[in-house]
Amino acid sequence: MNLQGFVESRVGQVVIILVIVLMLVLITLGGKSKGANRKVDIKAMTVSALLIAIAMVLSNVKIFTMPQGGSITLLSLLPIAVVTYLYGTKRGIMAGVALGLVNLIFGPYVIHPAQLLLDYPIAFGALGIGGAFRNGKNGLTKVYVVGVFARYLCAVASGIIFFGSYAPKGFNAVTWSVWYNITYIAVEAAITIVVINMPPVKNLFERIKNADEFGASRTNKIR
């Protein structure tokens, strides 16, 4: 059985589901709080799982599909940025890895073990790396831009290494991958940035973040 066949098999999907569950469990342990503050951690896991589900739904709302893979979707990369914005880099990366593995279950295209890792857990996990910017001005926008750029770099690397032979005449593997991947990722990113910077949307996310931080702080003081 080849790797694609294993991923699509019942055993392969059980293994992937177990890793997804592990990522969600690790999210409960990913914060600074321990023991007495377990409720806050459970909340982070619940919110992260909900946002992963929302990301999957949004990824199926395709505005445009590219001929060699990839598509412009309805803000589907935003939910992992929201996890990072609310809970930090570690939890954002773990939620992204989980999302990548969910995508692997529902739409696998695997030709090599390294390509599997690069296109699924690594690429989606990269969406969560912008946590260092979450507490500054326009924090969600910065978190999103950093994460999407990292996601883009993964797509470019995968295109160069594994799909360079698809480059049309006049392009080499590098220039084709750079151009091809930016055409859909940049368009979706631009749409998302406009949406999250609309005053009502921006204020909503800021209130959610402030309420979550206030709730965690209050719980710590009570205990």
TrEMBL record:
* Keyword line: Membrane, Transmembrane, Transmembrane helix
GO annotations of cellular component type:
plasma membrane
Q: Identify the Pfam families for this entry.
A: Thia_YuaJ
Tell me the domain of life: Bacteria
Show the stretches that span the lipid bilayer: 12-30, 42-63, 69-86, 93-111, 117-136, 143-166, 178-199
Q: Which GO terms describe its molecular function?
A: thiamine transmembrane transporter activity
**Could you identify this protein by its name?**
Putative proton-coupled thiamine transporter YuaJ
